[in-house]
Write a sequence for this structure.
């Protein structure tokens, strides 16, 4: 088991890739705090993990709240007595607007994609330093590597996530705290549906059709599956990646090749 005896938290873990990660990490022996604002879905994820013999508990709340985004670290430590990994997976699609963008939407996009991620990470440093190290994983996007014309605000936020990750990787490397990121291409989750169906893109087509078309644009000709990103996350989180820090790993079917 690749995470035997380890413990940590995953944000946005009640759905999609975060859920796949929670299940996968638990299967590999980790105790997992499932953080999500969807209370029912977070509890359901915990039930699934426990039914398979794993250890988990749910922390429900909105990560836009600074106190919650920081407090989840302490809660995880209190429950498991250790903190080996944190996967900052939460994110928000943002709007496609520029000229007519409402600044409240702009602030919301940055609050979820960057502010909440910074908060959780900031609270993670002290306990990881005291424990002699740990692994922090971020979820950026292919839009954090190559700009998306349809999503300049999301692009800015996801480039920002990688900037934060790289700065932290260099800053805390000598203290044994590794920081890396996964950069997913299109992955078949509810969030992909909100991306392709954003009303401000005037795409009045069938959402499932748009989802399939999005996948067809990748070199592999399909969307990713949540477990495929969870497997990449597992590697970066685990001790198998012990000499890897500051890396942004595309998991994108060749899209950024
Ligand atoms: N799906 C894709 O195609 C894709 C591609 C690249 C990157 N990403 C990134 O992956 C991450 C999530 O994607 P997913 O596709 O696994 O999502 P998803 O839609 O399957 O699940 C998102 C989860 O986040 C939770 N959530 C949203 N806002 C929250 C908040 N403020 N506080 C607490 N919980 C909140 C939701 O309740 C939900 O359970 C994001 O960072 C996103 O930018 C997604």
């Amino acid at each position: 088991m690749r995470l035997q005896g380890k413990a940590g938290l995953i944000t946005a873990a009640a759905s999609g890739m975060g859920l796949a990660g929670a299940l996968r990490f638990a299967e590999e022996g980790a105790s997992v705090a499932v953080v999500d604002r969807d209370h029912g879905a977070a509890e359901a994820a915990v039930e699934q993990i426990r039914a398979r013999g794993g250890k988990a508990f749910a922390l429900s709340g909105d990560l836009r709240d600074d106190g919650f985004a920081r407090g989840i670290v302490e809660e995880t430590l209190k429950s498991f007595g250790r903190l080996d990994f944190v996967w900052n997976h939460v994110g928000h699609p943002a709007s496609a607007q520029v000229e007519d963008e409402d600044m409240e939407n702009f602030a919301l996009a940055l609050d979820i994609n960057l502010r909440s991620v910074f908060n959780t990470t900031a609270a993670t440093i002290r306990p990881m330093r005291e424990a002699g190290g740990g692994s922090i994983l971020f979820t950026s996007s292919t839009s954090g590597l190559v700009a998306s014309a349809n999503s300049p605000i999301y692009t800015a936020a996801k480039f920002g996530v990688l900037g934060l990750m790289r700065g932290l990787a260099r800053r805390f490397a000598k203290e044994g705290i590794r920081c890396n990121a996964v950069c997913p291409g299109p992955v078949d989750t509810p969030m992909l549906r909100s991306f392709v169906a954003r009303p401000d893109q005037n795409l009045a087509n069938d959402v499932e059709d748009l989802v399939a078309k999005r996948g067809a644009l990748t070199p592999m000709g399909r969307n990713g599956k949540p477990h495929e990103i969870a497997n990449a996350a597992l590697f970066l989180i685990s001790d198998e990646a012990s000499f890897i820090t500051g890396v942004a790993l595309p998991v994108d079917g060749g899209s950024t090749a």
Q: What stands out?
A: Strands lie at 7-11, 31-36, 55-60, 85-88, 134-139, 177-184, 248-251. Residues 144 and 158 are 4 Å apart (CA to CA).
